[in-house]
Specification:
404 residues; DNA-binding; 13 helices; 5-stranded mixed beta sheet; homodimer
Chain lengths: 404, 404
DNA sequence: AGGGATTTTTTTGGCCATCGAACATACGTC
DNA sequence: GACGTATGTTCGATGGCCAAAAAAATCCCT
């Protein structure tokens, strides 16, 4: 199978789809809860779920028992684990993260590879990725049928067409990820901007972020932003994410990977901090390679030891971040702003300057309406987010009714 | 009546509401067109419309005849004109615009008043506005029942609660417009940010702006931004609009009305241009009052005559505007960006610098996805936009079924 | 002029998704 | 062990919606 099933149109299939999607988004739910969620009567829910149960699509979920309540206990329902699996892939500058999750959402295996891909031509790039996925699948998913693959990548992604239009981490442009991988793997492929994937995954863990507007700022290899409106991804002009990291926040500022100058990313991303720190220390400027995790830990260590110049650098980064969040608040007035990613590891050294800059860059009345939080979210969530989207696409197929 | 009717929940009323809303948004439509729009069969549409016609809510619309087509001609339907009227009010720094529109959307009267309101205390402010509306209603709407009032204002508006939380043009804060006017007028009141109202009105005239994301930048007394997603208003944290004009785009830039420095508005708004032009001409800085329309025309005249300093000033404004649109594109990736408002009158002197700045401030691949247009939209649209929202709220009442 | 051709609108009969109400079930509690 | 409470199921009935057929209103061609 190469493509995902189409959206159902028949009324009954639509109801099934809404029910399955509610389960996917809200986790295991009892029938009464589904009824409230979907605005349907217990009778209708009972009919829908009984067929889904006999078809083996749903199962009773014993793990999430709520004891101590009066009355007949709730029976929570969730997806069966034997409906196949999906693989989520995050492609970074010189690293690839893989995750295999079964239909019930349980992670079966993960893998992390150091593998520089940035200079490959599109075809070779696709060959490499496909081979990596295939190897992972045969090794980790022996007993499972792989149903789909999700890819999260930095940059501007057209997730409708499945193309990485432009990415700061690949030399090639307009890489047809979906088509290319689908041909090589014989599976449907979802492509998502990595910050969007992160936003989705975080919202799954924090239900309060699923109502209203949540802007999730991810700082790491680059700076990305994912915007959720009532838990659903806001998609830009071509179904892509946002390139908030390349908002030019300082005129004539430092060089950025995108070719511009003074982008937010050029102050906050790992490579930018590393580059500037090296320069300050009179050490030769590194070539454009990404710093290793060890190098960044060492940098943090220097800051902890009170390296004045480095602390100034981080303070400058905090200022830029404050201005950036100011722009977000003034432009979008989100209910929640989440700052996450590896870039938050230096938060203690950044916070003061951030607060001060944000105070100057936003109107107090508006700032007060926005709930700000800094999360130490692990990179694992990137693959989780795109896998979640994959599963939702596959659920469309499950909502189809078999002719009997 | 003080409040708007609640959203219907019964299935039939919901269908009526969807039908009426489609008519309100897409203008007069034939039954077949309604069927396609709503995904309902001709049979269902026929049943729904026949009752709406006998109830006198809809009428046949002869004005929009399409000749030359084969087959039986379409009968377009639209709202009857005798279901009452609404008044739309735009409250500016020292001007109030009024418009009276009947239920069929036809403008029956307009009025424009010079009336400084900015220094009044909330209660007096509400008294003034209420008196103005009342006078206009008794004079212009003699034969019509006024059903509701819509208010468009600059600043951060909580349109759910009907409060102007913060506005650069009023000294007072948290003005309870909805409640205050509803008490004084005995009518339900809609409050909307003025740029949002403008965005709605423009989208009504340009159907292509109703699909995808449209960011409408309005430059005039201040700088506002309204964001539409598939024709529907994006609402921030507290159902407000956006205060994009107070994004701080230059550190330590010129003073802004909001108290900050270097806001977009402080470079582009009429008062800012006027102030800076006066300063340049060695003339005494004007007090904080808004320039009159005449003063701005004179300014434009000086630019046409080749006043070097003034042209530089406008060029600087163009640069800021380019950077601002760059931020919009990088953050939201809208399908359309519309620049409108009185501030566009100097466009010829601004354009070159704008283009250059925008090119530097955005990634070419993303910029290419955004359709940019500059519209010479008149201020009249402000009242039209908020009236449109009023009518939609009132349509909720029409979608209710009478017990028979 | 008149008889298709074409498209819109109405009418009719029937289906099926959903619901209300009664019933069955499975606990805690006293 | 009876009662209270909440969840889940069964069954008959409702009514929103549709497909198909018919009617209506124009254009078009001979």
């Amino acid at each position: 199978m190469l493509t995902f099933p189409a959206h159902p149109t028949a009324p009954k299939e639509l109801a099934r789809r809404r029910l399955l999607d509610a389960l996917r988004r809200q986790g295991p739910l009892a029938r009464v809860e589904l009824g409230q969620e979907l605005g349907l009567s217990p009778a209708t829910i009972s009919e829908l779920t009984s067929s889904l149960l006999t078809e083996g699509i749903l199962v009773l979920d014993d793990t999430s028992e709520v004891a101590g309540a009066r009355g007949r206990p709730k029976q929570r329902l969730y997806f069966a684990a034997d409906l196949g699996a999906v693989i989520g892939v995050w492609v970074g500058y010189n690293r690839v993260e893989l995750r295999l999750v079964d239909s019930s959402g349980r992670t079966r295996a993960t893998r992390s590879l150091e593998r520089p891909l940035q200079d490959l031509a599109p075809d070779l790039f696709l060959d490499e990725i496909a081979a990596t996925i295939m190897a992972f699948a045969t090794e980790a998913g022996r007993d499972l049928t792989i149903r789909a693959v999700g890819v999260a990548a930095q940059g501007y992604v057209d997730s409708k067409e499945g193309i990485i239009t432009w990415s700061p981490v690949f030399a090639a442009r307009d890489i047809p990820i979906s088509r290319g991988l689908a041909e090589r793997l014989g599976l449907p492929v979802v492509v998502e901007n990595d910050a969007s994937a992160m936003a989705l995954a975080i919202a799954r863990r924090h239900p309060e972020l699923r109502t209203g507007r949540t802007a999730t700022l991810m700082i790491g290899d680059g700076v990305g932003m994912g915007l959720l409106i009532d838990g659903e991804l806001y998609r830009g002009a071509r179904s892509g994410g946002s390139e908030f990291g390349h908002v030019r926040i300082r005129r004539g500022g430092p060089q950025c990977r995108c070719g511009g100058r003074g982008c937010i990313e050029a102050f906050l991303a790992d490579y930018a901090l590393y580059r500037d720190a090296q320069l300050m220390g009179q050490q030769p400027a590194p070539d454009s390679l990404m710093p290793t995790e060890d190098a960044m830990t060492a940098l943090l260590e220097r800051a902890r030891d009170g390296d004045r110049a480095l602390l100034d650098l981080l303070q400058g980064a905090g200022e830029v971040l404050g201005d950036a969040v100011g722009i977000l608040i003034q432009t979008l007035e989100p209910d929640h702003v989440v700052i996450c990613g590896p870039g938050t590891r230096a938060w203690t050294f950044v916070e003061a300057a951030f607060d001060e800059a944000l105070a100057r860059a936003s109107i107090p009345e508006l700032r007060a309406l926005t709930n700000l939080r800094v999360l130490d979210a692990s990179q694992d969530l990137l693959t989780e987010g795109v896998i979640f989207q994959c599963l939702r696409e596959l659920d469309l197929g499950l909502s189809r009714l078999e002719a009997v």
